[in-house]
Amino acid sequence: MVLVAHVADVHLGYAQYGLGEREVDIYEAFEELVDVIGREKPEILLIAGDLFDSPRPPIRALMRARKLLGRLRSSGIKIYHVIGDHEIPRRIKDLPPTAILEKISEHVGLRNIAIGDDLVITGLDRVRLSERDEALRRLGELAKEARQFRRRILLAHAPLRGPENIVRDLPKGYSYYALGHEHDRRIFSLDGSAAAYSGSIEILSTAEIDGWSRSGKGFLLIDLSGDEPIIQEVNLGSIRPQKLISVEMNGLESALANVAEWSSLQRKKPIIHVRVRGRNIDRQLVLRMIQEKLAGRVLHYRYEVLEELEEAGEAEEIPAIDVRAIIRDYLVSKGFHEDEAELAVAIYDAYVSRGIEEVERLILSRLGER
């Protein structure tokens, strides 16, 4: 039997909302993940990018990664990784943070690694748009070379949504596509082959709360012994609960009472997100109500007020605009460096894909590097 563990988007070193407790939460989830993998004893662990949240993570994150993954490597588990977008060095010749894993995990960026005579792993790091065509060309060559093996895995950090969707262009014919970047777990067919995003191991944005409540957070175990991969979802129990409530102002008190009761039943104090809708809302009253109901029961709360406007007349249809191209072209025309223009586009993409939280996270990550 060939048993493979598939992990992605751990984001060691990330302190959500600037909270030290959230950085610790991710370390705890990662330690639980390593413990479970150690008990399951797969032959191989695949890390599909973004093990770290930044190209310059905290020293504590580097030490945790080396210690915990070193434990798995010492037990005989072979570990392979690719680099995600959060780990790409910002300066030429800088090493990615995964360099700390030398002799523990092997980097598989744009090459084939044969494991015995029967299995090959092809790797693809997250690539910038300017490098996309060349990376896909080289990947196609590697896919042809890989056909001599009966079992073939493509390990890639690859967006599934938006203009940077590269999944549709990946070479066909692999036994299993071990993917990273999307934080919600997804298992699907890619031209008849099994493909999956293992998802992040903690809740890193409000967009992930619904997915976590339905199917959990954790990693995947893949049995490659048969003709078709058998994929098992493994959930972690150390996740800090989060809840998003969206409510009209006149129902806020009741909703907060229910959330307070739910919070008292959780193993860890949760994070609560409150969206209040209505007209002429007293924001100070909203804040007082939240504080009175949730104080001492939650780790952190966030709220926003969505004011409803009077109905307007029918709006004139506006043709589609390529906002990303406009941002990039404008900044370049004004003398900004291409890297600076790409950062502005990255901020736009972060907002579109995961909201203002992802923008905050991107900016704090860049500030931390300085």
Task: Explain how this protein is built.
By secondary structure, the chain is α/β, with parallel strands linked by helices. It folds into three domains: 3-235, Metallo-dependent phosphatases (Purple Acid Phosphatase, chain A, domain 2); 242-307, Rossmann fold (3-Layer(aba) Sandwich); 323-369, no CATH class. Helix content is 34%, strand content 22%. The protein has nine helices and 15 strands. It has helices spanning 20-40, 59-74, 132-146, 209-215, 252-264, 283-294, 323-333, 338-354, 356-369, and strands at residues 3-7, 44-47, 78-81, 105-107, 112-115, 119-124, 151-157, 176-180, 186-190, 193-197, 218-223, 230-235, 242-248, 271-278, 300-307. Strands 4-3-2-1-11-12 form a six-stranded mixed β-sheet, with helices on one face. Helix 1 (20-40) packs parallel to helix 2, helix 5 runs parallel beside helix 6 and helix 7 (323-333) runs antiparallel to helix 8 (338-354). The protein is globular and about 70 Å long. 34% of the residues are buried.
Which descriptors apply to this entry?
Rossmann fold, 370 residues, 9 helices, Purple Acid Phosphatase, chain A, domain 2
